[in-house]
Amino acid sequence: MNTTINHAELEARLRSLTQRTLSSPARYFHVAVLLLALIMCSLLGALFVTEADLPGRTQLAFSALLALGLGWAVYAGWALTRRDTLLVHQQVVAGWMAVCGTGAFFVCCAVAAWVTKGTLAMAALVTATTLLGGAVWLLARSTHRLGELKALRRRLERT
């Protein structure tokens, strides 16, 4: 086993680990998320403003979707404007947003299934359960990866 430490190589590895930003494909993805969220918000906002006599439940649904779209727009803007390393932080934040969004969808589907007891509501509940499970799995994976990267960073800084 080689116990000699090449400090120049170690410093270069540490610098590359801590100074990376989003790769080009990830940057393009976040630009697309930002644009789609802004388009969604502008369309929902226009509908919300121009259709004043909508039922209360529809207004509540539009408000929730508008808040969700604004949340994704803020997230994409945050990820695109960060100049320091993200170290999977953007995936953890996106995971929490996905869990919250699919959790709200699950609750709404559960209430609809409980009230109507219809097959369409049950199918929506099954879909919501699948989406929520996927979101929780992605959050757990990104949180685990963040822990691994932080441990690697601490180990490289110690040596």
Topology overview:
Elements: H1 7-18, H2 24-50, H3 56-81, H4 89-116, H5 119-158
Describe the structure.
The chain has 159 residues and is mostly helical. It is built from five helices and no strands. Helix 2 (24-50) packs antiparallel against helix 3 (56-81). It is elongated. 11% of the residues are buried.
Cα-to-Cα separation, first versus last residue: 16 Å
Q: What is the string of helix and strand elements? A: HHHHH
Uncertain runs are none
The number of strands is 0
Radius of gyration: 21 Å
Shape: elongated
> Which range does the strand content fall in?
under 5%
Helix residue percentage: over 70%
Helix segment tally: 5
Calculate the mean pLDDT score and round it.
85
The largest β sheet comes out as: none
Oligomer: single chain
Structural class: mainly alpha
